[in-house]
C-alpha cells in the first residue's frame, strides 16, 4: 500500500507529549519516536512545530445527500472534512428523505466508503423525523449505527422519548437530542432577549433548550438509557448536563463552534448567515462555554456543519434556513477558545477527536464493521487516522475558497490562528501542505 513518515512533530498522546517521528505502513502506525532512516519510497512529511494527534471526528455533519446535493454531497463534505483535519464524520439523518431505515443508511454507508474518510451514520429516532412513531432502530443498529437522532428538531413527545430510550438501551446505542421545545421556541429566528426586541424579531428563549435538557436528564434517570445532547448553547444547559454526568447518568454533550465564538449581536444586520438553531446567545453564555472547554468539562466539540444553497441564504432573516458551515474552520476556532498560545494540545484532541470517537463508538476497540479506529493513542498498532496541525499558522477564511459546495460561513474574511497541514485517513495522505493531496 503506502508508507508515510511524519518527522519531528509534537506527538500528542492521551497523557504524553513528545517530539518525535511517526511511521505509517499499510494503514497502521508501526513506529513512534526517533526513527532515523526509513525504507526508500516512504513519503516524508515535515511536522516541525506542529501537533501530531489522532484525526478529528465530527459527531454532527449535515452531508445533505440524498436530497440536497446542490448544497453538499457525501463526497464534497468528506473532502471539506479532510481539509479541516477530520478522518471520520457522523452523517446526520435529516436528509430528504430522512435516514430512517436500513436501505437509506446502507446507501450513505456505501457512498461514504468510496470517500477518503470514514463516514458513520446517525439514524433517525422516529419515522421521517416526524416525532410520531419509532423508526426501526434495532435494524439500523444491526448495520453498526450507534447514534440516533431526529436532529433539526428534538423529540417533542416525552412519552415517545421515554419509549425510545427504553428500546435503545439493550442495543447499546445512544440517542442524540436537539434540545428545543418547539412550543416555547415558537417559530422564533434568533435568541429571545433585548437584541431580538430591538430588532423586532421573534425570539427562541434559552428556556426552550434548558427545559428539554432537564426533561431528558430525568428520562435517562427513569429509564437507565443514554443521551447525547447536541449543540448545547447556554451556561445553564451545561451546568445541568455536567451535574447529571457527575451523578453517573449516561449523559454526554457537545458544543458547536459558532456558539463559543459568536454572540447574538451578530444578528444586528439581519444577515441570515448568523441564523442557527439553537440560536447565537448572549456573551455570558459564550464565555460559559469557553470556560467549560478550558476546564475539561465538555465531552466534544461538534461542527453542526449545515451547508445551504446560496439562494436560500439570500432570503430575509426570519425566512432563511438555519445553519452554517463548520468543518474547515472548527480546529482553529477550538484552539482560539482554549486560549491560543496557552491551549493544551491534549484538551484540543480530547474535544475534537478522543471525546467524539468515544461517543460515536469509533475507537479501535469498538469498531467491528466498515470503519477503522479513531481517537486512539498515537502508538504502534493503531489504525493510521492522524492529523498534523500547526497551532501558529495564520490564515484568512474566504467563503468562495472553501472546499464545501456551499459558502454560508459566518467567518468570511476573518483571520484565524491554527491550520491543518496534513490529514492521514485510513493510512493514506489525503491532505498535504494544507491542500488536497
Ligand atoms: Zn440540531
Description:
The chain is α/β, with parallel strands linked by helices. The protein folds into two domains: 3-51 and 380-436, Urease, subunit C, domain 1 (Roll), CATH 2.30.40; 55-359, Alpha-Beta Barrel (TIM Barrel). Helices cover 28% and strands 24% of the residues. It has 13 helices and 19 strands. The protein has helices at 74-83, 102-113, 137-141, 158-168, 182-185, 194-199, 206-223, 235-246, 257-261, 283-294, 310-313, 330-337, 345-359, and strands at residues 3-12, 17-25, 28-33, 43-46, 51-54, 56-61, 86-91, 118-123, 147-149, 174-177, 190-191, 203-204, 226-229, 250-255, 300-301, 386-396, 415-425, 428-432, 435-436. The strands form three sheets. Strands 1, 2, 3, 4, 5, 16, 17, 18 and 19 form a nine-stranded mixed β-sheet that branches. β7 (86-91), α2 (102-113) and β8 form a beta-alpha-beta unit. α7 packs parallel to α8. The chain is globular and about 65 Å long. Zinc ion (ZN) is lined by residues 151-152, 178, 230-231. Zinc ion binds at residues 151-152, 178, 230-231.
Amino acid at each position: 500500500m503506502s508508507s508515510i513518515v511524519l518527522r519531528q512533530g509534537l506527538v500528542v498522546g492521551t497523557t504524553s507529549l513528545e517530539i518525535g517521528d511517526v511511521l505509517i505502513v499499510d494503514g497502521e502506525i508501526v513506529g513512534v519516536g526517533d526513527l532515523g532512516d526509513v525504507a526508500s519510497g516512504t513519503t516524508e512529511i515535515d511536522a516541525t512545530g506542529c501537533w501530531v494527534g489522532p484525526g478529528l471526528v465530527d459527531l454532527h455533519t449535515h452531508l445533505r445527500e440524498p436530497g440536497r446535493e446542490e448544497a453538499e454531497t457525501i463526497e464534497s463534505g468528506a473532502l471539506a472534512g479532510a481539509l479541516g483535519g477530520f478522518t471520520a464524520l457522523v452523517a446526520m439523518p435529516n436528509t430528504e428523505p430522512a435516514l430512517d431505515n436500513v436501505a437509506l443508511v446502507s446507501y450513505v454507508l456505501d457512498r461514504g466508503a468510496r470517500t477518503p474518510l470514514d463516514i458513520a451514520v446517525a439514524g433517525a429516532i422516529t419515522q421521517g423525523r416526524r416525532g410520531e412513531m419509532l423508526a426501526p432502530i434495532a435494524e439500523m443498529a444491526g448495520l453498526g449505527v450507534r447514534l440516533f437522532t431526529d436532529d433539526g428538531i428534538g423529540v417533542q413527545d416525552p412519552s415517545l422519548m421515554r419509549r425510545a430510550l427504553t428500546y435503545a438501551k439493550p442495543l447499546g446505542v445512544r440517542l442524540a437530542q436537539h434540545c428545543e421545545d418547539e412550543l416555547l421556541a415558537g417559530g422564533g429566528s434568533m435568541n429571545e432577549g433585548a437584541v431580538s426586541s430591538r430588532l423586532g424579531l421573534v425570539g427562541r428563549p434559552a428556556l426552550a433548550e434548558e427545559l428539554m435538557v432537564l426533561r431528558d436528564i430525568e428520562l435517562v434517570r427513569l429509564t437507565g438509557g443514554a443521551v447525547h445532547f447536541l449543540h448545547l448553547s447556554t451556561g445553564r444547559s451545561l451546568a445541568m448536563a455536567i451535574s447529571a454526568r457527575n451523578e453517573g447518568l449516561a449523559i454526554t454533550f457537545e458544543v458547536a463552534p459558532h456558539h463559543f465564538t459568536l454572540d447574538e449581536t451578530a444578528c444586528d444586520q439581519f444577515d441570515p448567515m448568523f441564523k442557527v438553531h439553537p440560536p447565537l446567545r448572549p456573551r455570558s453564555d459564550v464565555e460559559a462555554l469557553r470556560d467549560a472547554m478550558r476546564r475539561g468539562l465538555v465531552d466534544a466539540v461538534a461542527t453542526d456543519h449545515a451547508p445551504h444553497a446560496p439562494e436560500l441564504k439570500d432570503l430575509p432573516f426570519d425566512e432563511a434556513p438555519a445553519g452554517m458551515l463548520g468543518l474547515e474552520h472548527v480546529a482553529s476556532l477550538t484552539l482560539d477558545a482554549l486560549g491560543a498560545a496557552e491551549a493544551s494540545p491534549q484538551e484540543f484532541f480530547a474535544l475534537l477527536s478522543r471525546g467524539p470517537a468515544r461517543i460515536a463508538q469509533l475507537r479501535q476497540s469498538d469498531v467491528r464493521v466498515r470503519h477503522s479506529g479513531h481517537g486512539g493513542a498515537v502508538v504502534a498498532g493503531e489504525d493510521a487516522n492522524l492529523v498534523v496541525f500547526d497551532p501558529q499558522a495564520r490564515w484568512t477564511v474566504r467563503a468562495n475558497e472553501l472546499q464545501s459546495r456551499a459558502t454560508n460561513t459566518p467567518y468570511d474574511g476573518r483571520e484565524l490562528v491554527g491550520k491543518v497541514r496534513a490529514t492521514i485517513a485510513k493510512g493514506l495522505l489525503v491532505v498535504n501542505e494544507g491542500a488536497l493531496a
